[in-house]
Known about the structure:
By secondary structure, the protein is an alpha+beta fold. Among the domains are: 6-103, CATH 2.40.50.140; 290-422, Gyrase A, domain 2 (2-Layer Sandwich). The protein has helices spanning 54-62, 120-125, 127-130, 134-156, 197-205, 243-262, 274-281, 298-301, 307-314, 333-344, 376-386, 401-418, 459-464, 493-502, 507-521, 535-543, 573-578, 587-592, and strands at residues 17-30, 33-40, 43-49, 68-77, 92-103, 160-161, 179-181, 189-191, 210-218, 230-239, 271-273, 294-296, 318-325, 352-356, 366-367, 393-400, 428-432, 437-439, 445-447, 473-478, 481-488, 528-534.
Amino acid sequence: MRSHYCGALSTASIDETVTLCGWVDRRRDHGGVIFLDLRDREGIVQVVFDPDTEEYFKRADSVRSEFVLKVTGRVRARSDATVNAAMATGEIEVLGKELDILNAAATPPFQLDEYTHVGEDVRLQYRYMDLRRREMQDRLMLRSKITSAVRNFLDAEGFLDIETPILTRATPEGARDYLVPSRTHPGQFFALPQSPQLFKQLLMVSGFDRYYQIAKCFRDEDLRADRQPEFTQIDIETAFLDEREIMSITERMICELFKTVLDVELPAFPHMTYAEAMERFGSDKPDLRIPLELVSIDDLMQQVDFKVFRGPADDPAGRVAALKVTGGTSISRKEIDDYTRYVSIFGARGLAWIKVNDIAAGVEGLQSPILKFMPDEIIAQMMARLGAADGDIIFFGADRAQVVNEALGALRIKVAEDQGLVADGWAPLWVVDFPMFEEDGRGGWTPLHHPFTAPACDAAQLVASPGVALSRAYDMVLNGTELGGGSIRIHRRDMQEAVFGILNIDAAEAKEKFGFLLNALQYGAPPHGGLAFGLDRLVMLMTGSSSIRDVIAFPKTQSAACVMTNAPGDVGAEQLRELNIRLRQTREAASEE
Ligand code: ASP
């Protein structure tokens, strides 16, 4: 129907007759001349109808916002006075000759240029309208460029795109499963994949030594900020590559992606151990754009009587750490109170601080409610260790190490954002040498990644001391966001059984749930490993968006629902009967409880 996209027209087409199709962005009547801004995915162009084309002029006069039009006209230069520098097509306009109204439109539920005043629920309810907006079009177009650049890279590196099932068994990644009842197997359920993890490993057993898939994953997680119940991963698996080679190839992929799509040269990716990341940043995904670090002072606090610090300093599971903020003496009491409330979210019971007014004056030059609890000599040693200078504020965390890391790790980011201390640009890194397991709080262990991750030690050592074993896992982090993570996998049955044993999965349960994997491991499984990138987060970072909902065409709300289609929805009695399902109570009764 069309000869050109509206937004792609330029002075190159002057005097050409063109046919455009698009939506009416705006209609203006300027004393006998009708101006229509016509919009398509590439942008907007101004179309002018004057009264000499009487029939079409009348029609142009009758159109309203969001009508769909087909317009034929001649491209002409705008006069100097009417050039619009703010518009990509602002040097030209189209003198309309013919106009077809392809469809009328009801009054839009919100003005597309004033959407900021519209609640997100309304935007999601009318998502097809919301997506007409320039910034949403740009984001989804960039998303498409990103996936195509990733495919090009992986295709060129010999990776094969292979699909894996959506109706499957549980693939544990630490979340709840979405279940689908089976009609043909009464009382039984499929699980939607939390990731293609087990299938990609089986593909390695089959010999497809480089696999990728842009895969939908499903995780029924508790409501947490900016998570989606279904999301997309760039899922990768290789055989016969070790962790160094896997990190190198995927690092090249991300670097090429940034170069192709954003024309950005990413800096080198340092490798940092998990232990170092926790020690210095209180986080396993540190934002290296922020020049603030946690410093341990347990040894010094073991020499004070101040119980609040001394207790955690003496406790092997405790930690006392300081966070120095350069130039932070200007932080007010009220702001400190706000930060104290903020760290309490992470379980911290308070937030001690010291302001450094005049370091040369010794303790006299410091200001803090806690100075009186510590000997001057210890304070002096602490100041020296922190390199404290006039104008600094120092915050303290003293508690279980996990609480201190989470609280000060989050405070580090918050203070840096508030004080404008986050540097521009991109700060990538690899975090390596993760622990295999963490305590599950009930005397057992849970895997830090997933139970198929290979340990860096042998099975006997692993079973003897699971708490200290490291894994062969690696995470790619960019600007404080975990972009992707993976590992070398277990490829021997005995090791997989040892890990299941530590996780308290007994032989019968292992056979029932993962028998197919255990079997496969004994038929010549090659050494293999891989990783997965979160595509939504990657696109979010690359488009500078603040939520993954903004880079997904049809996302769910925070409560995991779709307000446009009203999913999830009720199911009729007949369908339930076919599925052999009887509801224990109606939805109304359940929501009244
Ligand atoms: N399956 C893992 C995940 O979804 C990634 C991997 O280990 O490849 O996080």
